[in-house]
Amino acid sequence: MTNEMLENILRRYDLDRPVPTFLRHNENRTYRVQDRSGNKYLLRVHDPFVPGMAGLQHRFDGIVAELDMLEHWGRWNEREVQVPVRNREGGLVTTFEENGRKIHASLLTWLEGRDLVKNDLPYEDTIRKLGEQLANLHAFFGRYEPVGLEARPHQGRAYNDKMAGVIRSGAEKGLFAAGDADTIEETLRLVNDRLTGTGSEGPGLIHGDIGLANTILTESGEVRFIDFGFYGRGYALTDTAMGVMMLPADWRRRFLEVYSGGKSWTEADLRKIDGFMLVAIIGYYVFQFGNAKMHDWMRERMPMLCREYCLPFLAGEPMLERIGF
């Protein structure tokens, strides 16, 4: 993307002499933008580095649905979170053309801080803030009236079936062994069996991609979630399982205690969390499926995933403290 294109995008916003600095190009192209007054923003150009990563979340209606949620999320919170900035026309999304293609961009306020790292996590204060922040997000989701969910990704039972099909196609192409594809399919079938009666897309709203890289430790020491690119329908326990996987094994039950407000967890719910942890791992393989640079890593890791985690899960072994940190 040329500097002239960036300047044209930023002119669509009410900013005073904005200066963009490139950050990275992964699922989106991202830039930090600072204006003359020192105000900072995050510019996202919704154009994945690997075309195969493109999904509903990169289309106009999907981006609008995400940003509407983030606007309301900002109103819900008393403390700072990342919220969208509307352009001069009042729109949440700015559309432009590059090489004959329509591409969408959005601008968010900047959240000062840094990515959470593993060394932050074996501490009571951080675990407590992480659990409280996730509980707050899910409380908001319970009251928010969503728009445009048909244009958003979902992570329900149908999503699990789709992932099994992707892994099966990888076996047919020689990326995975047929036996490993069988194990993944059985794992996802068991997860879905435990979710019977909850619909194909999931009963609620979720962040959908909780992890260290999408969690900010602010300058004031608060924990905040960013990057809602996979926001959509699903199961709250999906987010909870992803939060669990961020933590050392001996802190996971404390996180669950904080998140639940001290309520006890049933064995059935803990076993669902086991399954959602595996769903999150398998989901990473599926998301990277179109990225040829990751294929050697997948070939090496898939047998280990099946042997160390999926087969014990299928045998009924608890996984909460077993799956790696």
TrEMBL record:
Sorted alphabetically, which SUPFAM superfamilies does this protein's record hold? Protein kinase-like (PK-like)
Domain Aminoglycoside phosphotransferase: from-to ranges: 26-269
**Transmembrane regions listed in the UniProt entry:** none
Please give the InterPro entries that the UniProt record associates with this protein. Answer: Aminoglycoside_PTrfase, Kinase-like_dom_sf
- What is the top-level taxon of the source organism? Bacteria
Which protein, by its recorded name, is this? Answer: Phosphotransferase
Q: Which organism is it from?
A: Saccharibacillus alkalitolerans
